[in-house]
Amino acid sequence: MTPLAPLPHETTQPKERVAYLDNARFWVMLLVVIGHSLTELVVMNSARGVYTWIYLFHMPFFILISGYTARHYVGDFRQVRRIVATLIVPYLIVETSLQLMTRHYDGEPEHLMILSPQWVGWFLAALFVWRLTTPIWRALKYPITTSILISLASGLIEIPNVLALPKVLGFLPFYVIGLHFNREMFLRLTQLPYRIAGALLLAGSLAASLLFADHRFPTQWLLYRGRYEDLDVSWFEGVAVRGLLLAIGLLLTLAALSLVPRARSVTTVLGSRTLYAYLLHGFIIIYLDRQFGLWATIEPYGATAVLGCIVVGAIVAVLLMTKPVATVFRPVFEPKLTWMFRDPSQDVHHPPSDVPVWKQDLRRRAPATRGDDPGSVAFTRVIR
Fold first, then answer.
1. How many helices (H) and strands (E) does the chain have?
2. Domain ranges of the chain
3. How many percent of the chain have pLDDT more than 90?
């Protein structure tokens, strides 16, 4: 039997983080936590309007950035180690803990379903699947078109929730679009005319979401899961609505990206720690809801309760991105796992090279693309 070829590896040191991307992560994480804090209040129009506006683009925003930072994935030693340490391990810890927590309070799920994420763990599972399929999307001739067709078609059939597959396929176009972004596109978006247009578009979409909140648009559409039949529409209507949401999500994502500051600031530092805010905020929300019935208590206060959730949600998100939290939870959510992986320098078949694998590949096949975006290739976080 022929032995498996060793994985390619890189020996270059991680480069400096990109302030613009960390700033973007900070703002989108605020939206994630605020959106989740409003989930139990969507019976009120004010909460429903804000919730709908956030869910129109906050995950497309996050996913597009994740695609951009994954565009040079080749499966080398460092990248595989990062996937295990910052995706697989946190997923197993968080998903198991959250399911045990909800079973304690609600009695569900009756049996642990670790490969079927029930809440925030879905994004880690999705990143894992997307990251492994990155070489495919880089190789296809029409990757964006293909991903859109897959997303539209995924609502036609019943798909099991193994590793959040319905959402993986539904949100796929945003990841693939991110893979084909480059630094110049981000810089162009931050020019003044685009910033003005982006601000107007976001403000107008928020106003529209609040204005039409009482029309009871099914928020399940915004989760990109489930069959169109389950949403009581025909296949044609389902494809049309999903297509419209994809277009709106991309447009609002570009608008939000245009407003992200490029300079380093306190949000840059906080934005480098969004992993902890994402993984921990779910425990806080479930505990406050199940233990104290917080949202049922504040619901009678109407718009005041909604505003309070927005403010407190933002504060909680910021606190979870602070250094003390990162210091405590880094060994848990970003373990080094040196005991698990062999030393790539001992690989006699593929000794370390001073030139990263992806650069060697570009030199052989496409020298003209080497200058595409060398300054942000070695972005070191998977989710942040």
1. 18, 0
2. 19-376
3. 76
